[in-house]
Amino acid sequence: MAEKQKKDWSRIKYPDSYISLGIWISILLFLTYSIEYLEIPLDRLVGMLQRMGYTLANRYYPPDLEYIADLDYMEYVLETIQMAYLGSLFGLIITLPLGWLGAFNLTPSRRFVYPVARLVTMGFRAVHEMIWAIIFVSILGFGMLPGVLALTFFCAGFASKLLAEEIESVDMGPVEAMRATGANLFQVMIFGVLPQVRVALTGIAIYTWDVAFRAATVVGFFGAGGMGWYLKRNVLQIETERVSAILVSIIILVLISEFFSAIARERVMKMK
Amino acid sequence: MKSEEIIIYRQKKRLRNIFIFLILLIMVIWSVDVTIVEDTDWERMGSLSDVLSSAGRFIGIDFSLFPDLIVPSIETFMISILGTFVGVIICIPATWFGAKNITPFKPLTYPLGRLLMTLSRSIHEIVWALFFVAVFGLGALSGICAIAVRSVGFIAKMSSEAIEDIDVGPIEAIRSAGGNGFQILIYAIIPQVIPQILGVIIFEWEINIRRSAILGLVGAGGLGLVFFRQMNTFNFHGVTSVIISILGIIVIGEFVSHKMRKRVI
Distance (Å) from the C-alpha of residue B209 to the closest C-alpha of chain A? Predict the structure, then answer.
């Protein structure tokens, strides 16, 4: 009798335990297969940390801070900030109609407008900002205009997705009340929906600024203006100490911008 | 008196709002002037028809390129999966240190975890890839490392926030039954947060597909390399086909992640 009670308690019961084991084994098999397929030199992983430490200490370590304490560089930093500002602003301007048309519950036509708006949103979002930057540079030439456009498209992509999700979770009571009194589409949007998503929209705007600024620091890598161009030049010249100085400046700028957006987010939370 | 005060308060508020809007407007005009009006080489760009014709070069698909795109697409897919996997492994200590309620030694490890997250998020994946290419040489390994390091920030941040919000009841129950710290972690904390964390990981994987598609631009394998080659040989129709195949992978990834997230939650 005592031996029967020995059966251990386990968190996952009989059939599920085999299924989860199978999933784990197939994941592992897939991982090993892809390591094989990509021809990853696993022997290089052995000295990885050592090599990383060596590279950091010998080539990148003393960041050439004098190089970035230059007035020219400050001008580029300012341009980067302006580019991110304009990019996120224009992106948000595109977002407002796109998020509305792409929200399933309030779109003017579920059969035609909704899929198109969703497709446009996905297209904006799916193509990475770097690819947008390269394409716009090849169309419009070097300068900050392609950078601004690339950031605009990038921001419009994910901000409209977030906004559409926010609009879909809106309380339909006021909307139906307004419809019952004979309000048209725009009136419903402006007086019924916008007041409900106002706070969320502000949050989305802050997030957009965060992401846009991070992207703006490197968009210039392919000739779209801002600090990225400095980075590219020094990477190509293998001036690693200057590169690390630029990276330090990017991190500091991002920290400053995150600090301000944290303050803004707290104020938005109070608004609720 | 009371109503007058309210009126004055409203007027002040209105004045302040107008002031803020004016500042924003001036900033917009100034930025537009500096970035778009002054910095653009309008002569090189030419008239609108020139711009349209140079944009028109991209319209059209180079179908002969598609067979060559299959292998890079699979590579991109695998880089994103392996990168996410390695990223999750790196995440475990970062999450442990960065969650306020389970961090082992608060004054030292909590800031350390937060620093790791910010560092990984604030540097763009292209820059990470450049660094790893310098360390490991060209190839998929640098791309995997870049993606892994870049995804640590988001996953660790979201999962440590999830851990900070958990219900403390089960922890206390296990502690009162005599469980040690490790048992608390396995039986009280992880079961509560695993669906959320899996959702975050799947979401990050979806983003990582997008990232791994461009890492080839700096020599880290995948579709980006093909994109770069097509761009440099001015085969604009080929560029369009690469973009279409990137879209294809992303649609597949989004579909898979949607199904998986539905199953997890």
Answer: 9
